[in-house]
From TrEMBL:
It comes from the Bacteria. This is ATP-binding cassette domain-containing protein. One of its GO terms (molecular function) is ATP binding. It holds the Pfam family ABC_tran. Gene3D superfamilies: P-loop containing nucleotide triphosphate hydrolases. Residues 2-214 form the ABC transporter domain. GO terms for cellular component: plasma membrane. Keywords: ATP-binding, Cell membrane, Membrane, Nucleotide-binding.
């Protein structure tokens, strides 16, 4: 679940971004929509506890994020949030299994290679376990990154423009994988997008339209 009230954030020297209130139940799907610069990535960073709000209430997966700081917030994020960033951030120094294992360190948990293999198998990429990221196609890398995002059965999955630069067939399959992964964890799914194909594919999803601040 995600609940925000009067949520605001400001980059130094920039006008405040003020976000509309939002209530998404556990297991619900939210499309975070708005054109480039409207604040989608900033909203995701607030909900992931990567940035602190300048103002407002923010409750994610039953946790009031204002009550958490430092290491406690990092561990909460590692256990509660599955993040599928637009740039996948897979380390070329590590193979696929070891890339996924980093999720345990971030959450302060002991790593389990068996669980990593299960997560890869659930996304149909078990045979890629010992490859380096540069040996994966774009679609395979996205599946691996999604396996990493859902490895610890997060309460909330945040996907930043998951269909950008994908053709129609690949976009459809990325959305189906995201929905299946969220359903398996009972997670709330947030997709930040300005791709109209996402709205068409998920007609029943809640929508949170964002608007860029008007320059003073
Ligand atoms: N580090 C930063 N410092 C200052 N301003 C920033 C910073 N990051 C983003 N902004 C500004 O904050 C606003 C919201 O940016 P944000 O990246 O959240 O938008 P977005 O909707 O995700 O855009 P896009 O679809 O292009 O990724 C924009 O006006 C942007 O220029």
């Amino acid at each position: 679940m995600i609940r925000t009230r009067s949520l605001a954030f400001a980059y130094p020297g920039a006008p405040a971004l003020r976000f509309p209130d939002c209530d998404v139940p556990q297991g619900g799907t939210l499309l975070l929509q708005g054109r480039s610069g409207a604040g989608k990535s900033s909203w995701l960073a607030l909900v992931a506890g990567l940035r602190a709000p300048a103002d407002g209430e923010l409750v994610v997966a039953q946790q009031d994020l204002r009550a958490l700081s430092g290491v406690a917030r990092d561990h909460w994020r590692g256990r509660s949030i599955g993040f599928l960033p637009q740039k996948l951030h897979l380390s070329e120094a590590l193979n696929v299994v070891h890339n996924l294992s980093l999720a345990y360190f971030a959450a302060g948990l002991p790593a389990s290679e068996a669980q990593v293999e299960q997560a890869l198998a659930a996304l149909g990429v078990a045979d890629l376990a010992h490859r380096r990221p540069s040996q994966l196609s774009g679609g395979q890398a996205q599946r691996v990154a999604l396996a990493r995002a859902v490895l610890l059965a997060p309460k909330v999955i945040l996907a930043d423009e998951p269909t950008a630069s994908l053709d129609d067939e690949a976009a459809g399959s990325a959305l189906a994988l995201l929905q299946q992964a969220a359903a398996r964890c009972g997670a709330t799914l947030v997709i930040a997008t300005h791709d109209r194909r996402v709205r068409e594919a998920l007609p029943r999803a809640q929508s949170l339209p964002l608007h860029a601040p008007v320059a003073a």
